[in-house]
Amino acid sequence: MTYRRSAGSPRGDARRRELLDLVTEDLAVNGLVDFSLRRAAKAAGTTHKVLLYHFESAEDLLQRAVAQLRERRIARGLGAAAEAPTLAGRVRALWPVLTSGESWVLDQAIGLAIYDADRHGGLARGGTQQYLPALVSLCPPAWSPERKTEVAAMILATLRGFLIDLRTSGGDPVSVDVGFAALSRALEREEAAG
């Protein structure tokens, strides 16, 4: 059965935001494992039919909630990086934000995308679309847009690798620390090259 969507009305948009906030909070606490429309409805204090009225599907709701968690993470990360004088320093300032709070939920999203790319690949693609502009904004202003994008893509891929390593090694930061030192040196050389 298809439900009428509430898009377009201010009241419908406000209700959709409210429901999304409640589901996002549930994800932040309980993670992505066993996510379902019924669990989301319970967290939002409503029924699955109401959720389907406001969202296209459980997958749509999940992707929007994960995107909202990422937006919070990005805002905290950019705030932490704002005072660092170098690109390497800004990236290093991001790291504690990337590994704290509900970061484990966002790491689960990467795992789901790897496990079932057909069903959950949008979770990883959405992450790239959200993180890349934030990382570009950390690059020196004098760099060309192409160079900023290339360096930001390298940083994103490297940090994702560090996160996976950290989560799969049982939390042992030794290899991540060594890798981070190498990344910092590479970014310092890149920035020194002008």
UniProtKB/TrEMBL annotation:
DNA-binding interval(s): 36-55
HTH tetR-type domain location: 13-73
Gene3D superfamilies: Tetracycline Repressor, domain 2
Alphabetized UniProt keyword annotations: DNA-binding
Lineage top rank: taxon: Bacteria
Name by which UniProt lists this protein: TetR family transcriptional regulator
Source organism of the structure: Asanoa iriomotensis
